[in-house]
């Protein structure tokens, strides 16, 4: 994603720090969480919202109190992704606990 995709003003782009180069990683040993499409959309919506909030804060810092509403927070809340899926209420103990460690 480039800075053009985020609708970042040109005067702000010059202040953006270039990230370090991407390191090539052996994909055979790496694991990426299997988000479904809706969860990926939620993550992207929050990423975009945070970018808009950074721009809003930058304007607030430069111009002082501004009379525009805060960017609307996307739904669902990002916390919805923090819940464990298929969590079991079964408590492991004894031999069963030992085998799962």
Describe the fold and architecture:
With 101 residues, the protein is mostly helical. It has three helices and no strands. It has helices spanning 10-13, 37-63, 94-100. The protein is elongated and about 65 Å long. The chain starts with 9 loop residues before the first helix and ends with a helix. The model has no long low-confidence stretch (mean pLDDT 79).
The count of strands amounts to: 0
Class derived from helix and strand content: mainly alpha
Helical stretch tally: 3
Shape: elongated
How is the biggest beta sheet arranged? none
Instruction: Output mean pLDDT.
Output: 79
In helices, the fraction of residues equals 25-40%
In terms of quaternary structure, what is this? single chain
The helix-strand sequence is HHH
N-C termini distance: 40 Å
Rg measurement, Å: 21 Å
């Amino acid at each position: 994603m480039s800075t053009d995709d985020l609708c970042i003003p040109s005067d702000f782009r010059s202040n953006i720090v270039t990230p370090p180069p991407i390191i090539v990683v052996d994909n055979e040993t790496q694991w990426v969480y299997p988000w479904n499409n809706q969860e990926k959309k939620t993550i992207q919506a929050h990423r975009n919202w945070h970018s808009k909030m950074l721009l809003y804060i930058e304007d607030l810092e430069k111009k002082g109190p501004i009379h525009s509403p805060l960017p609307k927070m996307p739904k669902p809340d990002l916390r919805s992704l923090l819940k464990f899926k298929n969590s079991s209420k079964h408590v492991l103990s004894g031999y069963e606990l030992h085998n799962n460690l």
